[in-house]
Amino acid sequence: MKEFLKWALPRLKVDRRLILIYCIVYFLWGLGMNWFGTQVEIAKFTYWWQVITTYILYMVPISLLLRGLPFHMQYAYGLIAMCLLEFGGYALETSYAYPNNILDQFFGIRNFSLGMALFFGLYFPLGNWAVGKIYHLVFKPN
To answer: pTM higher than 0.85 for the full model?
Structure first.
């Protein structure tokens, strides 16, 4: 555990403006995905505020830890994080999958959570890339 903390703490100590951009981008992204999932009846959060707990309190710190790693490593570690989140969300019924949704029809009902985790694992490398671009565009750090 000491080795992990020694590695993780410096990665979490970043410019507060960067954290603000992560929170704004991920919050809007989460609201958008929850809206889309509801509109096309794939899946949704049980409560709207889960966007905050999932996208900001869970995904932002993980993104900061994975930042700077190669794409494939961010995706692999992100996939593990999203598998735990998807499993927990559906097991605890804090996420709702619409019956017979398009993913169930295409991949089968038993593969729904796996498909969701595979898709959402991409959030980490894509989110880190997008936030980095926005941060450099807005603040132009040296």
So the answer is: yes
